Amino acid sequence: MMQHRALLAVALALLILVLYQEFVLKPYYGSPRGVSPTPSEGVRAPERAPAPPPPEPETAAEEAELPAAEAREIEIETELFRAVFTSAGGRLKRFDLKHYRLDPTPGSPPVPMVHPSGGEYPLGLELRGRGLERPLRDLGVAYAVRGEARRLRGGEEATLAFLWRAPDIEIEKRFRFRGDRYPFSLEIDVRKLPKDVTELGLQWVEAAERKVSGYYSFLGAVAVVDGKLVKLRMADLERKVQPYRGVVEWAGYADTYFLSALLPGSPESTDLWLFRRNGTAEARLVVPVRSGSLVSFRVFLGPKNFDVLESVHPTLRRAIDFGYFAFVAIPFLHILNFLHRFTGNYGVDIILLTVAIKLLFWPLTQKSFRSMKELQKLQPQMQKIREKFRDDPEKMQREIMELYRRHKVNPLSGCLPMLLQLPVFIGLYNTLLSAIELRHAPFALWIRDLSQPDRLGHFAIPFVSPPGIPVLTLLMGASMFVQQWISPPAGDPAQQKLMLFMPLVFTVIFINVPSGLVLYWLVNNVLTIAQQYFLLRSSK
Predict the structure, then answer these.
(1) Which of 87, 176, 292, 339 is disulfide-compatible with 349, CB 3.0–4.6 A?
(2) Whether the Cβ atoms of residue 283 and residue 204 lie closer than 8 Å to each other
């Protein structure tokens, strides 16, 4: 019967997941491959001249030339970042986050947000039109510079401008910065253009072969188009341009903890192209343009901090992947941050949150335990029924149900807590896995980073990477074994042995899981053991 209950619980859990995905998430996230490349039926972009077809990425790359050697570099430093622009193409050459380091060790370099490929930097322009023989790019253009290096503090502001002047072209890029904010603005003042140019593209480029550490890490293109989230891993980007037409709120590239995003000033008249070419992944925002146009964007390069993203744009927080149960994960993140104001240690915050969740589900767990005890008492009678009606399964099932009815036992009551705790666990799991607050956050003793697997020392163990002894994971496995040992035994001896084998399986699974998650699971097991001990004593 325990087997039947477990199978039923799993089946119901899967059913809930499928229904939730179909009727709640699908309208929110859209199809896994992103939105349709055709215009949406909702808010449409304004009428514009027929657009030239998307370029062939491989041939476009052949136009690229390295900038002139005499390119001038200008550094802008604020309280949050240090940026270096180059006059060769008027592009962003470096952008380092001052408050985030590559690893927890002292002196570790700041996190870079620009990952060039083949000498090409982000924020380049492309001019397109049906009458042009080929698109015009500013990769090799020597821009004139207006502005100088600045160090900004607080509300101080500065403007840095790059002027592209040719016989039939005059375009000025104006970047505006503020000392206490991550996003900066970009105005593209198009004063003169060839008559055949009808579109302007602003690009963000990334090295397509860039790797990120971690078994559960993400790296790829992200965007919100027509209210739906587009999310493609680097490996899923195609060499053929993938165009998205609709209301483009923002687009860019992200890894697990950081986001590079371009936000157009006119989302309803912007198209998005995603593609990769010659080792470069590119997100390009394409807008209609003519002589005298003023096109505006905002550029956000920073941490995937929930409050920071929301302060920049309401939909930018969707860059954080909280999974199917975001409605649970987001409140958990707020609770962790609230507790952190008082404790100053996210490990302690995880313990406190685990205790609160355990207390919340205490009555349900208690009811489940009592149900299991009642079912255990009925095992001898159930065994007799099975032996008596061995050749008549239908009759056997009716007799067992009658046995439940006489003793007022509901076999599903043991499954209910499992089902109710499922979204809570997944939500907390995604919170701990995605929250930048836990990145490089120390707990105690050998646990110096709650976002990484715990390791004590550097002792090499086969199939364990990075090296070291996973002490916290072993403690978690031991707690699971104790928990199984004191739980009411299942009626089937083979099933009892299988349940005692489960801690070993979970220990292997959790070896490379971030220590923040292992800490949650360990504390939850310890609390469950205490609860079961209390219930066993009170039931005697």
Answers:
(1) 339
(2) yes
C-alpha distance from residue 211 to each of 47, 123, 218, 440 (Å):
41, 22, 10, 19
Handedness of CA 399, 404, 405, 410 (dihedral sign): negative
Contact 113, 123 (CB under 8 A): no
Predicted confidence band of residue 493 (pLDDT cuts 50, 70, 90): low
pLDDT digits (tens, 9 = 90+) for 327-341: 888 888 889 999 999
pLDDT value at 390 more than 80: no
Determine the Cα–Cα distance for residues 223 and 212; give it in Å rounded to an integer: 20
Structure tokens at 3: 């087997």
Answer for the pair 409, 1: CB distance below 8 angstroms, yes or no. no
Whether residue 57 contacts residue 277, with contact meaning beta carbons closer than 8 Å, is answered with yes
% of residues, the chain, pLDDT over 70: 81
How far apart are alpha carbons 328 and 351 in whole angstroms? 17
Half-sphere exposure of 370 (CA within 13 A, CB side): 13
Could you tell me how far CA 249 lies from the centroid of its own chain? 18
Q: How far apart are CA 42 and CA 298, in angstroms?
A: 24
Please tell me the distance from the alpha carbon of residue 345 to that of residue 519, in angstroms, as a whole number: 13
Q: How would you class 457 by CB atoms within 10 Å of its CB: exposed for 0-12, middle for 13-18, buried for 19 or more?
A: exposed
**Does the bond joining 466 to the residue before it have cis omega, within 30 degrees of 0?**
yes
> Is residue 411 within 8 Å of 7, Cβ to Cβ?
no
Q: pLDDT (tens digit, 9 = 90+) per residue, 434-456?
A: 888 888 888 888 888 888 888 88
Q: Which two tokens stand for residue 498?
A: 């299988």
Query: What single letter denotes the amino acid at residue 136?
Result: L
Taking the alpha carbons of 260, 263, 264, 267 in that order, is the dihedral positive or negative? positive
pTM greater than 0.70 (yes/no): yes
Q: Which of 30, 53, 55, 50 is nearest to 40 (CA)?
A: 30
- Is the Cβ–Cβ distance between 490 and 484 less than 8 Å? no
Q: Quick one: CA torsion of 424, 430, 432, 437, rounded to 10 degrees?
A: -120
Give yes or no for a contact between 219 and 255, defined as CB atoms under 8 angstroms apart. yes
Structure tokens at 337: 């941050």
- Mean pLDDT rounded to a whole number for the chain: 80
Question: Which tops the pLDDT comparison, 25 or 243?
Answer: 243
β pairing state of 110-112 and 91-101: antiparallel
- In 3D, which of 214, 218, 215, 248 has the Cα closest to residue 230? 248
Identify the DSSP state of 88.
Answer: B
**Which residues on neighbouring strands pair with residue 254, listed in sequence order?**
220, 259
Pairing mode of beta strands 150-151, 73-77: parallel
Residue 197 burial (10 A CB sphere; 0-12, 13-18, 19+): buried
DSSP string, 412-463: GGGTHHHHHHHHHHHHHHHHHHH-GGGTT---BTTB--TTS---BS----TT
Q: Which two tokens stand for residue 165?
A: 């002047």
